[in-house]
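Reply to dn_fold:

You asked what the input looked like. This is it:
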Amino acid sequence: MRALLLALLVTLSGTAAAETNEPPAQDQGTHATIPIAEKDFVSNINKFEKNAIIKQFGEPSGRTDIKSGKTGEVIASIWHYHFLNTSDADGAYYPTTELDFIGEKVVLVVFMNNNGEKLNSEPTEPSQQAPEEQEEPLPEFSPEMSI
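and this is what came back:
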């Protein structure tokens, strides 16, 4: 899952880097307030850098940094906030808002109806009985074989 997210973030980094003709987000974010309504939030959050987001909303409740294997430098971050944004339809809060960063810029926003933690797909107790090994090898596939 992280590899897929990293590939998405790296793909979007070219787009983020190409938008250098805008005024620096730091100048925009120091005096402006980030809206919390879903559509306004999505439309405006990419104008703010990490320090402006932390200044308004505080530290994220969860944070994952993705580092370069060669340099160890943080190239992307995933932040989770709880009950930060309201839906436009009924004004209820989303349980979790995920902000995906490349460098200082938000490149993806995800609204989740859960707490943002990984769902445990593994059984809580491992099976005591190991699966039996297959004694006979499977026949090799041949194009002439019919089903």
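Confidence is low (pLDDT under 50) at residues 13-29, 119-127.
Hope that clears it up.
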